Amino acid sequence: MRPALVIEVAHLVIAVAVVFLVFWAFAWSYPPGAATIWAVGGVTVAIAALLQVPPILRAGRRA
Fold it and tell me: Is 60 exceeded by the pLDDT of residue 34?
């Protein structure tokens, strides 16, 4: 596996983990809005993952 590809995948994993922890803290601190907070968190994770796709594809194509 190419080092650049490993780095990009690591960025994706770290971004998803950080977003999860932040939204977990939000939901914990405001229980009445937890359902909405988790919904927004899910959309945020999806967007973060989609934003990471082009760099991952570029890293995979590099020689």
Answer: yes
Contact 15, 52 (CB under 8 A): yes
How remote is the C-alpha of 20 from its chain's centroid? 8
pLDDT for res 32:
97
Give strand ranges (E) for the chain. none
Cα–chain center distance at 63: 26
Q: Quickly list DSSP for 21-63.
A: HHHHHHHHH-GGGHHHHHHHHHHHHHHHHHHHHHHHHHHHH--
Please state the pTM of the whole predicted model. Answer: 0.82
